[in-house]
Recover the amino acids of this structure.
């Protein structure tokens, strides 16, 4: 029988698993595309040791949360995040999101407001807009994304094996690569495909302009998944009270490859006095 102590129910009754470590000011982590809350363990361990309460949840179709067979869209994901925050009655929260998680947080703010939130940290954000449009000519053609999704439908584990290396550093141990690939292989293929389509078709520019919270953006110069010029720098231009810290040579998986630096920057940011 499922132990419901570490679960909350979404509005459609989908069970959402969360891990809750430590005591103190609350930090809530939103995971990357196709990754569960386990990806944040190195950040959670460091921040818990520093006296913070760290909460990370598995979005629907990921990790130990339910796979409802649909509703894989940003509105639903942001409502799920709201359910976690409200069920635990959190306030003055630091929201931390990696890649797609930063976009999830952005939609949360536009749908639910910032009353419970104190600050934001975006790690390698996959926004504000990835696709090529008339007013985003440097974006990526939607046909390229669709072709990749076709490969996932045929053999997602093989695609991961062939494309994992650019996510990390040349000297990243194979065991670490195997660790995050194993987590991704367990994600619902429906969630993998549909959420990637949501992400690559979304436009968060207007929503990011409305963000007024202090925001830290951490991004690497060697990010192959969310190129710095297309994503991190544009987020910083749109979000008024933001600080962009560029990690020279860092890839998309900087939460793993540059964990110590990420943890220091998060702790320094969280300890700053409120604006």
């Amino acid at each position: 029988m499922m132990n419901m102590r570490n679960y909350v129910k979404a509005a459609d009754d989908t069970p959402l698993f969360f891990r809750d470590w430590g005591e103190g000011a609350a930090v809530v982590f939103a995971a990357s595309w196709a990754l569960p809350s386990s990806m944040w363990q190195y950040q959670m361990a460091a921040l818990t040791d520093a006296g913070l309460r760290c909460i990370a949840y598995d979005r629907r179709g990921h990790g130990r949360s339910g796979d409802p067979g649909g509703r894989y869209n940003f509105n639903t994901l942001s409502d799920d995040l709201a359910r976690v925050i409200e069920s635990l009655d959190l306030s003055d929260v630091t929201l931390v999101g990696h890649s797609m998680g930063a976009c999830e947080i952005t939609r949360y703010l536009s749908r639910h407001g910032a009353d419970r939130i104190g600050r934001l940290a975006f790690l390698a954000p996959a926004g504000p807009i990835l696709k090529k449009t008339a007013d985003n000519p440097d974006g990526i053609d939607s046909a390229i994304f669709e072709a990749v999704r076709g490969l996932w439908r045929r053999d997602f584990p093989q695609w991961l094996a062939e494309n994992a290396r650019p996510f990390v550093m040349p000297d990243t141990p194979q065991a670490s690569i195997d660790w995050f690939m194993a987590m991704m292989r367990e994600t619902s293929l429906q969630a993998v495909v549909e959420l990637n389509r949501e992400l690559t078709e979304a436009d968060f520019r207007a929503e990011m302009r409305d963000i007024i919270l202090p925001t830290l953006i951490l991004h690497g110069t060697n990010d192959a998944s969310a190129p710095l010029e297309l994503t991190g720098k544009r987020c910083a231009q749109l979000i008024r009270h933001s600080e962009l810290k560029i990690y020279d040579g860092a890839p998309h998986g900087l939460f793993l490859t540059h964990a110590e630096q990420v943890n220091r920057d998060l702790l320094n940011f969280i300890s700053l006095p409120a604006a």
